[in-house]
Design a protein that fits this description.
9 helices; alpha+beta; disordered N terminus; globular; Elongation Factor Tu (Ef-tu), domain 3; 29% strand
Length: 392
């Protein structure tokens, strides 16, 4: 396998453009050389160190818990029309072929990058959204913004429970159109939503092959519901000390966004052994706009220059509120210093393991595959928190 650079850019730069959180996350490459599991230390109170067996034995003051987290391989395949390839080659237009090939390569890398960026907030179940309703070949998502996680050509599967058994033995629909404004996914006339037997409103949706094979993002690191006895997301029971081993779930209430965030930070800073002093508060672009709207009218114009609309950033004490395009709307995450890392094997690749960067498939077509073998690592789950963004 070899690294491919697209349009003079490093693959890491393509990844970083997808998400503010991803851009601000420490990236580690060549961390284990090959596709072996790696250990992730979970630090909390105190200065001692205990292994997973001790933590499972209800030592709630354990400072470190080691989890073996399997690496994840994310990929995208692009299908190139064989007649186009043949025309440019037979015509001696090698430069045109190179540009065509590079364009397809860029698209593949962009898809993988978007998946990796979204993975920072996701859980390993791999779900990308939920079915709201279906009318004919059009599925309307329960959350409109989830449309950004689907693309034309995606094969979509469904399950009743998040990470549960797939409907209809894994049969799928193929997306032919995505409406990002309305959250509508239009399916192929033949491989359509009706073809997935027993599919119902509220079902979780996946790209084919992603079920329980996605990134261990914040959805796993700090789940919305505290782990209970028998929890084994990382192979160990985190219910022995949920706040230390599975992050903090905030229930702070208030009459305004400002009040909620101020009280949240006050709640977190008093916890011993955490690193929230210079934390970052990540929220969706829509939720960030609600602060802008609330505060815009209170600004003073102190010059004759043209008045610019919008506010670039907010501070809550020493913490900074950061908008992120792929953060789920309605939820905010507070991360302490160094709480999240992204580990990968040498960055992003074009798959050439069999010696063929481009391989011929059925018919007069060729396929190109981009992939990244990576996962998220968290060393301080006790320094991660989440809460529900106040409405209104």
């Amino acid at each position: 396998m070899r690294i491919i650079q697209a349009e003079g850019e490093r693959p890491e730069d393509i990844l970083a453009r997808q998400s503010t959180l991803f851009a601000q996350t420490k990236h580690v490459k060549d961390f284990h050389g090959h596709k072996y599991d790696w250990s992730v230390a979970y630090a909390g109170l105190g200065g001692g160190s205990h292994d997973a067996a001790t933590a499972e034995g209800n030592d709630v003051n354990s400072a470190t818990m080691l989890f073996s987290v399997a690496s994840k391989t994310d990929y995208d395949r692009r299908v190139m029309d064989g007649s186009t390839v043949r025309k440019v080659l037979e015509g001696g237009l090698n430069e045109h072929y190179f540009n065509y090939f590079k364009s397809e390569m860029n698209l593949a890398q962009e898809v993988v990058a978007q998946n990796a960026a979204r993975g920072a907030y996701a859980s390993s179940t791999g779900s990308r959204g939920r079915r709201g309703s279906v009318s004919g070949d059009v599925l309307t998502l329960a959350t409109t913004d989830d449309a950004f996680f689907f693309a034309i050509g995606d094969k979509v599967q469904a399950s009743a429970a998040d990470g549960g058994t797939l409907r209809d033995a894994g049969d799928f629909a193929i997306i032919t159109k995505v409406n990002y404004t309305t959250g509508e996914l239009t399916s192929d006339a033949t491989k359509n939503w009706a073809g997935i037997a027993l599919m119902a409103d509220g079902d979780f949706l996946y790209r084919a092959g992603d079920l329980n094979k996605s990134y261990n993002g914040l959805g796993d690191i700090v789940p919305a519901t505290a782990p209970t006895s028998g929890d084994a997301v990382f192979g160990y029971d985190r219910s022995v000390s949920p706040d230390i081993l599975a992050g903090i779930r905030l229930t702070t209430t208030g009459n305004s966004v400002e009040t909620v965030l101020i009280r949240s930070m006050a709640n977190l800073k008093k916890r011993p052994g955490t690193f929230f002093k210079n934390a970052k508060i990540y929220c969706s672009e829509e939720d960030f706009a609600s602060i802008q709207v609330a505060k815009e009218g209170s600004r003073f114009i102190d010059s004759d220059n043209e008045y610019d609309m919008g506010i670039d950033s907010f501070k809550v004490g020493s913490a900074t509120v950061v908008p992120d395009a792929v953060c789920p709307t309605g939820t905010y995450f507070i991360l302490g210093e160094g709480a999240l890392e992204f580990h990968s094997n040498k960055g992003m690749y074009i798959d050439a393991t069999d010696g063929n960067t481009v391989r011929k498939t059925a018919g007069d077509t060729y396929t190109l595959s981009a992939l990244i073998d990576a996962n998220y690592a968290n060393f301080r789950p006790g320094s991660c928190a989440r809460g529900t963004w106040p409405v209104g």
